[in-house]
Recover the amino acids of this structure.
């Protein structure tokens, strides 16, 4: 469904101050047809927390770190 304005609409909502004010955290990631679960987790985690070197961690550890952070947040 290329060319329908999906990305433009998503960016407009994502950058809207009224929408942002309702949430504690927000993150943005690009999902292509060929994507890496690990890269998605790292992108989201680095958006909501200080970026750090998490390359040595297993996927489950990264997902758990994100889950623990988001437990008390509105997202």
């Amino acid at each position: 469904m290329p060319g329908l304005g999906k990305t433009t609409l998503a960016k407009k909502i994502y950058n809207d101050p009224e929408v942002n004010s309702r949430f504690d955290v927000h993150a943005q990631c690009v999902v292509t047809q060929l994507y890496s679960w690990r890269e998605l987790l790292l992108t989201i985690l680095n958006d909501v927390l200080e970026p750090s070197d998490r390359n040595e961690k297993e996927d489950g550890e990264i997902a758990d770190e994100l889950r623990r952070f988001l437990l008390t947040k509105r997202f």
The chain is about 50% helix and 0% strand. The two ends are 27 Å apart (CA to CA).
